[in-house]
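--- STAGE predict ---
source: upstream dedup step, 1 unique chain passed
mode: sequence only
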Amino acid sequence: MDFIQLAISGLAQGCVYGLIALGFVLIYKATEGVNFAQGDFMMMGAFVTIWLTNAEYLGINFWLAVPIAILIMGILGYLLDMLIIRRMFGQPQIALVILTIALGFIIRFAAGAIWTHEPQLLETPFAGKEVRFLGFVLGFEEVAVIIVTLLLTLFLFLFFKKAKLGKAMQAASQNQLAAYYMGIPVKKIQSLVWALAGAVAAVAGILFASKGAVDPSTGLLGIKAFAAAVIGGFGSLPGALIGGLIIGIIEPFAAYALPAGYSQITPYLIMILVLIFRPAGLFSQMHSKKV
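--- STAGE serialize ---
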């Protein structure tokens, strides 16, 4: 019984890692860049929702606040690319890495200055509710995390596979100049990708905050999510989710079996093993760049 409960708890946490990893993959699929502030976007999405819904702030209805928070984070992602990231065009990828790491520090500082560094809880209509299934007691928020994550991953997978906009995003990633000559508005497409990554981060933040308290340091979960993206394979949306699930499920068992603190290194040990034996990731969909 304890085994199953640990697995379900890890599954829900792994879904959060997977959602943040989806943001990494979205940016990489469309721009071949890595946004190391994605975890901080998730944290900011959580705090924006708390600001909108909690009684001591605006106190908006939860179901109205959720789409507003997602929209706000999408707009922030769009503006970030339009005003800052776009200025990095033509620079080495390491410049974008350094920029997004610095941006993460700024976001954490801003969140602390606005909402303090004390842990805060998101007021949700399903807090404390339980779902009973085959003798197991599951928190409603854990079930919601799993279902929403699966649906969002499926939507994004079909979006990149079937939708013209999704295909245009991938074409811009493969060869920006060729995509431009084919009539694809490359700069606008990339801004839309950053907006989409911001919206996905907001969903991850809302789901994470529904499970427990958040503070500015919550953004550092992005490091584990990056490991999940590497494990699953950059360029693969399902791979990002599966990488997150692998880390999420292994963590509670490692914490149960290993001395205190050692479980925190398991995601990175798995990442190292994957990089050694399958450098492109377990479910890589990366292709050779067309020239």
